[in-house]
Write a structure and sequence with these properties.
There is one protein chain. By secondary structure, the protein is α/β, with parallel strands linked by helices. The chain folds into 2 domains: 12-90, 2-Layer Sandwich (Chitobiase, domain 2), CATH 3.30.379; 96-427, Alpha-Beta Barrel (TIM Barrel), CATH 3.20.20.80. 39% of the residues lie in helices and 14% in strands. The chain has helices at 28-34, 63-75, 111-123, 143-146, 154-166, 182-185, 218-231, 256-262, 264-283, 321-331, 351-368, 391-402, 409-419, 427-434, 450-455, 465-477, 485-502, 510-524, 530-534, and strands at 12-20, 35-37, 46-50, 55-59, 83-90, 96-102, 128-132, 170-172, 200-201, 207-208, 239-241, 286-290, 309-313, 334-338, 372-377. The protein has an 8-stranded parallel beta sheet with strand order 8-7-6-15-14-13-12-11. The chain has a 5-stranded mixed beta sheet with strand order 1-5-3-4-2. A two-stranded antiparallel sheet has the order 9-10. A hairpin with a 5-residue loop joins strand 9 and strand 10. Helix 10 packs parallel to helix 11 (351-368) and helix 17 (485-502) runs antiparallel to helix 18.
């Protein structure tokens, strides 16, 4: 009899002689009745033995039962009542396996949309979910900020938290608390909190017309702490992501003199420390923060509380995870490694960059002692990408976070077809191919696809007509996708529209493409953000 095929591959599978009747195991509850405590380091570890002599399940904790059940279902897939005997032992490489979904750059999922994400995360063995929030929570005293965004409500959080718990997932609060406050500062009532209310210059020389960073003073601290005081009591999770990334204009405005005297890093760290102390002392939660600012100032890490967790994010193939993680390890702080889905600022994603970025993050994170892996999925520039673009990244991350040593692309594709595309073989390959269309131009910009840049009217000067024609030939040669066909066709239309713009061809199908974009948006996402997203389309 053929050996079972497992996703993910277990750490150990030892075939034994004979077959075993498992018809009595009709559901997970029946398997749970067999579970006994085992001696494992991880609460998610398990040892499942199915043999003529013995049928047993040893677990590190209750969380392991669902994973053992998933492997048992795969074990019996081809012979439900005559399972080939064997011993399966497994445990995750990372205790924390998280997904962060951006709900602040356009799409705020409906409850149906959130439930779909939760089901997918559970299938790929994630155990944490974060909803990246800037302005899209319905804070009681700040309706002007969230009114047009169709925000998440306290009732949504409580509902989602229960749903996540049913799927073995912890819902972790996430509220950016220093940078990325532009959607607050643009309102007159909040200009007084801004470091540079009239704008600033980015590190790459771009002039921004509105500030995005809070000035690090008592009034801003009171604002942030008030938001967290309203948000955090809704959550059972023992930690909170306070963000604090990309504080680009710190020192360009209100804190200029102070930064000149004390140093930018000291001013930054002092404000972040006060937020951390508040969530620790008032709410008993461990603070997590994006580590980009202090990567250049590692001496400041010692000025943060020992309970803080650094989030090392990097979204490009070749990101220096190892060097940064080495610094965090030396500081004594816990840290997570945070790759990206490469879905944003694209239509079909950036497939090869995504595959390399996730694998490197997992391997280097494991080598340096990261406590977990957090896959990020952003919505920059109107969240124009379709949700299935991210699903192959979920599957690969699920494999890499569980057992990086055996994670293969072929297994990720088969697992994604099985769990995300309803068992339709080849769907994942189709989506990965869409994510390679832009690469056929010969240009691979950072943090975007070249055809997305063309769509926004930002075509690189070195982009050639020959490269664009190669991309079109590759796109036109792709076969029809078998599942998620509407999202697939919408992605293809947007790529074709980008090619028309780049080649200065007459636009065709623009009205229908925008109408379909709106229809697909509304299927799983709320109305807020849609008008802004559609505003990114070229004028007819």
């Amino acid at each position: 009899m053929q050996d079972p095929v497992f996703f993910p591959k277990p750490r150990k599978f030892q075939p034994l002689a004979g077959v075993v009747d498992t018809c009595k195991l009709s559901d997970m509850a029946a398997l749970s009745d067999l579970a006994v405590p085992g001696r494992f380091e991880s609460a998610e570890a398990y040892r499942l033995e199915i043999s003529p002599a013995r049928f047993s399940l040893e677990v590190g904790g209750d969380a392991a039962i669902a994973y053992a059940w998933s492997h048992l279902q795969q074990w019996r897939e081809h012979a439900p009542n005559a399972v080939p005997a064997g011993i399966l032992e497994d445990a995750p490489a990372f205790d924390r396996r998280g997904f962060m979904l951006d709900i602040s750059r356009g799409k705020v999922p409906t409850r149906e949309g959130l439930a779909r994400w939760v089901r997918l995360l559970a299938a790929f063995r994630f155990n944490e979910l974060q909803l990246y929030t800037e302005h899209t929570f319905a804070y009681r005293d700040h309706p002007d900020v969230w009114r047009e965004s169709s925000p998440v409500t306290p009732e949504d959080i409580l509902w989602l938290q229960d749903l996540c718990a049913d799927h073995g997932i912890t819902l972790v609060p996430n509220q950016n608390s220093f940078g990325h406050f532009e959607r607050w500062i643009k309102h007159p009532a909040y200009r007084r909190f801004a470091e540079s209310p009239d704008g600033f210059v980015t590190p790459w020389g771009e002039q921004r017309s509105c500030g995005s960073v809070l000035k690090p003073d008592p009034a801003s601290l009171e604002l942030v702490c008030g938001l967290l005081d309203e948000l955090l009591p809704l959550f059972n999770a023992p930690r909170v992501n306070i963000g604090c990334d990309e504080t680009f204009e710190l020192g360009q405005g209100a804190s200029k003199a102070r930064c000149a005297q004390e140093g930018h890093a000291a001013v930054y760290t002092g404000f972040v420390r006060k937020i951390m102390d508040h969530v620790r002392e008032r709410h008993g939660k461990r603070p997590e923060f994006w580590g980009d600012i202090l990567n250049s100032h590692p001496e400041q890490l010692r000025n943060l509380p020992a309970e803080a967790t650094a989030l090392e994010w990097g979204y490009e193939d070749g990101h220096p995870f190892d060097a940064h993680l080495k610094t965090y390890a030396a500081s004594g702080l816990d840290f997570l490694v945070c790759p990206g889905s490469s879905s944003w600022r694209s239509f079909g994603g950036r497939s090869d960059n995504m595959l390399a970025n996730i694998r490197q993050a997992a391997e280097q994170g494991l080598a340096r002692g990261a406590k977990g892996l957090l896959l990020t999925d952003w919505g920059d520039c109107g969240h124009l990408q379709q949700e299935p673009v991210t699903w192959p990244a979920l599957a690969l991350t699920g494999l890499c976070a569980w057992n990086p040593g055996t994670a293969s692309l072929s297994d990720a594709m088969r697992w994604c077809d099985r769990e995300a595309f309803g068992g339709m073989s080849g769907c994942t390959q189709h989506w990965l191919d869409l994510g390679r269309v832009s690469e056929h131009t010969g240009i691979r910009p950072t943090n975007s696809s070249v055809l997305f840049k063309c769509f926004l009217g930002q075509a690189p000067a070195d982009l050639t007509a020959a490269g664009l024609h190669q991309a079109r030939e590759f796109l036109q040669a792709l076969p029809e996708a078998a599942d998620e066909r509407e999202a697939w066709q919408q992605t293809r239309r947007n790529l074709e529209l980008s090619l028309q713009l780049a080649l200065h061809e007459p636009l065709t199908g623009l009205t229908e493409t925008k109408r379909e974009h709106a229809r697909l948006w509304r299927r799983y996402n709320r109305e807020g953000g849609l008008a802004e997203s559609l505003g990114n389309y070229p004028k007819s």
